[in-house]
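Entry for 4'-deoxy-4'-aminopyridoxal-5'-phosphate complex. Fields follow.
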Amino acid sequence: MSWESNVRKVVPYTPGEQPKAADIVKLNTNENPYPPSPRVAEAIRTLDPNRMRLYPDPKIEDLVHAIALVYGRKDEEVFVGIGSDDVLAMCFMTYFNSEKPILFPDITYSFYDVWAEMLRIPYSTQPLDDHFHIRPQDYMRENGGIVFPNPNAPTGSVLPLSEIEEIVKGNPDSVVIVDEAYVDFGAESALPLIDKYENVIITQTFSKSRSLAGVRVGYAFANPKMIKYLNDVKYSFNSYTMNYPGILLGTAEVLDTVHFRKNCEKIMRTRANASARFRELGFSFDESCSNFLFVTHERVPAKEIFEHLRTKHIYVRWFNKPRIDNYLRVTVGTDEEMERLFSALEEFV
Ligand code: PMP
């Protein structure tokens, strides 16, 4: 009783299901359906158990340097963490330290309000318009920081770079985090803005376009001063975030840019075919620039489709939330997986 009054009570984020059964079609957590670069398999063979006695490099220098090299940035402009969830949590802790509310969309990545609640950061959500688009003018009010994904999740809607710039430029007194978890599937990155503005940070991840969700690698780009503040908080929390295998495998993956591009193009081709099939079946949705489609059917409720697909061992994501409870978020899988999905849909809708 008494000790419980001192406990930090939180309502945790609910990650998508990770069903264990074989022969399922898993289109519910936006993972990449293809393996990472063959260089990752080679790197696994070089893992040395004797190195595991030692703490890993707290500065994560090899991976930071590889990311900087691939993106043409300086090492001091790069931060690495355990998936972009870790990077984003560190960003919230570092930059959102004001009495004023931070701003993010009402329909967005459902971890933002969890971090805000946990860290006691006041926040105010801004409604997306009727087409699920962010309205930049909503972010021109007093605030303690701004965060949004681009493309947005789970709606997939994209904000053009000029409008992101408007938000960054219009808020010189707060930090703007652009969460680019899905940017590699056809959207434009806001990375060039870090050269023009002091108050913007871009986060990305190896979990989607780089096929390493199971290894947990995320990263961020900003000016060296912002990265230093972020590292100060990281070292005050846990100096050794990335482990030795994660650093090695992440470095091998990021340096294989040819494999990365081919993999993204393959997913975008499957997405184009899947979009046509969804439309034929009476679904509507915005053109996607991510590795998922956010679809709604003209007649059949999303929940019924979701439940039908589960009986066929096909997992997609349905959010029981206002405004989006008649939508399904469907990750783009392999062509074969999408074939199974459409066969199951054809007999139901
Ligand atoms: N941002 C968005 C918008 C996401 O959908 C996800 C995936 N759940 C993440 C960040 C975090 O991904 P990860 O921690 O795997 O990098």
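NOTE: The pocket of 4'-deoxy-4'-aminopyridoxal-5'-phosphate is lined by residues 83-85, 109, 149, 153, 179, 181, 205, 207, 213, 218 (CB under 6 Å).
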